[in-house]
Amino acid sequence: MVIDEIRSFLNDYFDVLQDQNLTKFDNVFDSGSVLYSAQNGAVVVRPFNDYRVMVQGRESPESKDSPRLDEILMIDILSSEMALVKVRLRLFDSIMADYLNLMRVDGQWRIYAKHFHRVGDAI
Asked: Residue 92 phi/psi, 5° resolution?
């Protein structure tokens, strides 16, 4: 049952990255969540509010008719309230790999931390 809930949640996550619907965005990411990446040798830390402003200010992949690629590579369930997942997806012209730390609070799964990496160009 937990695995099915997480798969359903990940579909919402993939949808949010494509359509950038901010109402759905607020249901996928916890307001205290933080995103991490390493770019050009520097660690980049982006709090929820900074990421939300960035998403709000750009055109969505969906509006640009960007092809979609969504893959769930791993789901590791730590408990009925915590999980770590690895996904790969296309975002604009890039292939991204994400590790998502999920928690279920008040019956709803949300992302509490995201580590992401640009794997390469989409062909």
From this structure: 60, -120
